[in-house]
Amino acid sequence: MKVLLVEDNQDHAELIEDALASSYASRLTLKHVGKLSDGLELLNNEEWSIFLCDLNLPDSDIQHTVETLQNLQSPSAIVVLTSLDDEDTASLLLGKGIQDYYPKDKIDSDMLARVCQHSIERKKLLRSLEEKNRDQQQFCYSLCHDFKEPIRKIATIVSMLKSDIQGKITLSEENQWSFDAVEKNVENLLAITDGLYEYLSLSQHSFENVDLNDVLKKCLNHFTKGKEFQLQQDELPHLQGNASQLQLLFKNLIENSIKYSKGPANITIAYKLDTLQGLHKIQVSDQGIGISPEDVDKVLLPFKRSVSKQEYPGIGLGLSIVKRILENHSATLNIESTKAKGTVVTLSFPQSPKTGAAN
User: Fold this and answer.
1) Beta-ladder partners of 30
2) How far is CA 4 from the centre of its chain?
């Protein structure tokens, strides 16, 4: 087993090395460094079975180490070494970049070996699941792309047939209804494939410094024709994110406000910095038909809606796309809505910048 150990306390490092040596003997290869930067360099340049990392290091305090590990993309299993006071912090990292944590105040060779082995197996399982998920997603992604051409051909053939028949005879009311129904369902199919394509494409993203005012301005260009609404907005912040995804986020929120308003929509986008929680909070509010409290969680799921398709056409992907974009940005949303009075969607983005790209 090949172990990379990042620990600045020499006594702890020796205890950990002795504990692992007693369990793995000649099968152990261990490299010890005292700084996070040195550990990350080795992690990037070589393959390791497991990465044992202390939280508090000379070149990285606990908060910085936690943020680094959360964004770390590595094939190695990661185990955080903690003191008793750090266990709550370490437990929060489970599922967010690390496989396990181990209190170095009470080192036991058998227990440490079990933690390492379980972490390696957990990492293998996670990578296998991620690979299967990527394959399934790519399959669905390809299907969405491949479905569009035959759907368009159906639309073209129906349009040509309708034009040809109308040039020869007068269509009955029933015939006209049939043609309209086919055209409407073809439009719905195209909307569904476009929506799925957008939803599935959200797994790939890179981050940069983004001015949300520019993002919103580009988004509003999408609504230049046939969309009546009034928009009031605060000056928005800069943050680390993916500009195209954030533009899609605002587009879906504004489209929902327009669609679910009885008349021209009145939309407000407000911003405040919550310094206590370290969050950029952006509220998108309208005075539309609102959502029943029992439907709030449901509308965040793909293809789930709180109103009938007949009254308000759509495919039910808007808010699920918003939710997924926010997850990509380690952000959250909260929906407050009153039936017939309007909806307030609060987006909470972390103030601390994120580094790198996910997936």
Assistant:
1) 3
2) 30
**DSSP E strand boundaries for the chain:** 2-6, 29-33, 50-54, 77-82, 100-103, 208-211, 229-233, 238-241, 265-274, 279-285, 332-338, 342-350
Tell me the pLDDT tens digit for each residue of 16-75. 999 999 888 778 999 999 999 999 999 999 999 999 999 889 999 988 888 888 778 888
Count of beta carbons in the 10 Å neighbourhood of residue 10: 10
Q: Contact 326/333 with Cβ under 8 angstroms?
A: yes
- Roughly what angle, to the nearest 10 degrees, separates helices 173-201 and 318-328? 10
Domains of the chain in start order, with CATH, are 2-107 (3.40.50.2300), 130-201 (1.10.287), 207-359 (3.30.565.10)
Q: At what angle do helices 109-166 and 173-201 cross, to 10 degrees?
A: 150
Instruction: Give the amino acid at 315.
Output: I
Rounded Cα distance, 100 and 215, in Å: 39
CA 53 distance to own-chain centroid: 27
